[in-house]
Amino acid sequence: MGVKFDKDEFKKSVADNLKVLYRKTVDEADKQQIFQAVSYSVKDIIMDRWLATQKTYEKEDVRTVVYMSMEFLMGRALGNNMINLTVYKDIKEALDEMGLDLNVIEDQEPDAALGNGGLGRLAACFLDSLATLGYPAYGCGIRYRYGMFKQQIKDGYQIEVPDNWLKDGNPFEIKRPEYSYEVKFGGYVRCYKDEDGRDKFVQEDYRSVIAVPYDMPVVGYGNNVVNTLIIWDAEPVNTFNLESFNKGDYHKAIEQENLAKNIVEVLYPNDNHYAGKELRLKQQYFFVSASIQRAIAKYKKTNSDIRKFHEKYVFQLNDTHPTVTVAELMRILMDEEGLNWEEAWEVTTHCCAYTNHTIMAEALEKWPIELFSRLLPRVYQIVEEINRRFVEELKVKYPGNQDKIRKMAVIYDGQVKMANLAIVAGFSVNGVAKLHTEILEKQELKDFYEMFPEKFNNKTNGITQRRFLLHGNPLLADWITGKIGDDWITDLSHLSRLKVYVDDEKCQREFMQIKYQNKLRLAKYIKENNGVEVDPRSVFDVQVKRLHEYKRQLLNILHVMYLYNQLKANPDLDIPAQTFIFGAKAAAGYKIAKLINNVADVINNDPAIKGRLKVVFIENYRVSNAEIIFAAADVSEQISTASKEASGTGNMKFMLNGALTLGTMDGANVEIVQEVGEDNAVIFGLTSDEVIRYENEGGYDPMEIFNNDQDVRTVLMQLINGEYCRENPEMFRDIYNSLLHNDGGRRADTYFILKDFRAYADAHRKMLDKYKDEKGWAKSAMLNVACAGKFSSDRTIEEYVRDIWKLDKVKVEVSDED
Ligand code: CR6
């Protein structure tokens, strides 16, 4: 089943689009215009399938999942849409014939960077899998005017530049003003009796905005299914009738205009960190309220009994960010649909399911009740009532146990605790990797697990092979298809069929040749974008992910400093040349990028080590360059402090592209090693049990290591003796101090960097020994690909469907098929 592609028709369509959009011919148009024209031509192919899919859903009145997420890190759409329509190669050919280079055209598209990191990208992978598997699904999020900032590196520092991704227009989106909804903030709640004597609650003297949806197509692979990502924009209620307002209302009109402008202005660039800003809560309620209103309106088109809403809709809450969903749904069901509390609660608690993505304390969302009740007065009343009833339950179940109430109540200490709200009102709570779910059950959410064991389940994350292999690594994708056929594209478990080739020396050579080509491609990218020359024959050792203390980029760079010392002391050291590649955006203020860049500067310019060590910080790491980076990696650095990384998904993308994991027993690394075998990865460091034990005991003494390990001491002293910052030797004193000294409530070496240092250095040695054995390495790398099947987001989605969402697959027929 595929799209019937007519090359001449497509070429004509591109030329026509250039004419209609820009009054230009192909020769006259610039690259951006060509990108737009090609995108509209591809959108044209999508459109029939999109219409057919939505018609089918309506006709069959399907049960639907709404994936509620503040973040969708979609990346570029054009290439992925062509891949999933199965017309990538056809279009490439057609464009070739027109004298146009598809790679250049794809490069014109800005990434849709509506997310920070793993959580947002996971949402994007899930949408891809849902469409490919043929499940009715919507993503609901926010159409931020500015997505994740663009990163520039100046003088070693990260500079954040606004990402005006909509500047040239977004060719794939469709504005749907006819499905707009009002969302209200502030004011007060008036209670009155209706004609039946029942209490009615209305919000008065509020400020409001109009939520206007933009639809983005989510194309399934080769199956005619096109689902929808709805991203909400905010418009003022009364831009057009300002004149009609009297003096009193004028002020309010301006306020509402500003509210609309501000609310969707920018994505908060925090990964795994909660900042508690009022505007953030506004964003959350804004998209949640609009999305629920839309779902209910859609439901009512084909169903009459709102008491059965949960039979047709399930809301998956991507972390606590959209948790206000439970209270907003209660509000709408009661205040607007006329249900009583029990009826509304019955629906809500069968509708909402919550995914936890972290155990990091600083990521836990807690809103001061002052703020929450001021912004959402009616919703707050409902949260209070949920809390009151739940605390009653706790008192019955655990009489006299104040500690349970303190830990489990939804409102406590003047704060609304969003995770508790999600767990109390949700019917499912899941972690994102086996180890993570175990930690939730045994530690972080122990009390809830004891009370509601049936709600808890694990869903190990996954990634879409369509983007991260088929699109990102075409050479390897073709090679795999040549060996085992192309079933892997929609069923990644087929990769295991590659196992029969791992000892075949010809296959090994082919495989390593592809890796080499991909390393050349990355080397070229690095040269063009960073001006650094790297040796494609060196080991590409890569750590790309958000900059975060718990992810321990610091451990990595300290080890590079150590290696450099070794090489200087012993120039004949028999180790392969290595290139350490970093890529990461930081929350403002985290200075580690400066250290990495300064170390890079010193090492890369030292002729004494004869190019055997290079360090590169790739500027503006994002989905589009990630695809190039994963394909070229030899070693995948997954070195978070055990217990801290809930899952990780980059780890899976590296594995799928044939890199060996050098990592801790954390997150999904545990399952990666289980799949590929201990010989085909290198594991080091404290276990999560050990970390948790140390934490409970108040830490460990890093001074002991400082005193006894000369190599570690040398590296640490280099942080404060100007070795990596001649003009300001004090530059890295903070880092030095944080590793050795307690500071107020903060333990020295909070993330056990020095504790794990030796084990990490040994792990690197072990990895290099493996690399020296060419055939052994090729075999291990191939086994990583062959064993990556489990980590497809298709598998993850099938588990969500089976255990939580209970959806049926849908078939979509389109008339232009082959
Ligand atoms: N930062 C986890 O830290 C996980 C993703 C997706 C994270 C990461 O280990 O793979 O979610 N958590 O589940 C949060 O964002 C809160 C992440 O991306």
SSE map:
Layout: H1 7-22, H2 31-60, E1 64-68, E2 72-75, H3 78-84, H4 88-97, H5 102-106, E3 112-114, H6 118-133, E4 137-142, E5 150-154, E6 157-161, E7 174-175, E8 181-185, E9 188-193, E10 199-204, E11 207-219, E12 226-236, H7 247-263, H8 278-302, H9 309-312, E13 313-318, H10 325-336, H11 341-348, E14 352-355, E15 366-368, H12 369-375, H13 377-397, H14 402-408, E16 411-412, E17 415-417, H15 418-425, E18 428-431, H16 434-444, H17 446-451, E19 456-458, H18 465-471, H19 474-484, H20 505-530, E20 539-544, H21 553-569, E21 578-583, H22 592-604, E22 613-618, H23 623-632, E23 635-638, H24 650-656, E24 660-663, H25 669-676, E25 682-683, H26 688-696, H27 702-708, H28 710-718, H29 733-740, H30 753-772, H31 774-786, H32 793-805
Parallel strand pairs: 1-4, 1-13, 4-12, 13-14, 14-18, 18-19, 20-21, 20-23, 21-22, 23-24, 24-25
Antiparallel strand pairs: 2-3, 5-6, 7-11, 8-11, 9-10, 11-12, 15-17, 16-17
Helix pairs in contact: 1-2, 1-4, 3-18, 6-32, 8-10, 10-11, 10-13, 12-13, 20-23, 20-31, 21-22, 21-28, 27-28
Bound molecules: 1-deoxy-1-acetylamino-beta-D-gluco-2-heptulopyranosonamide.
1-deoxy-1-acetylamino-beta-D-gluco-2-heptulopyranosonamide binds next to helix 6.
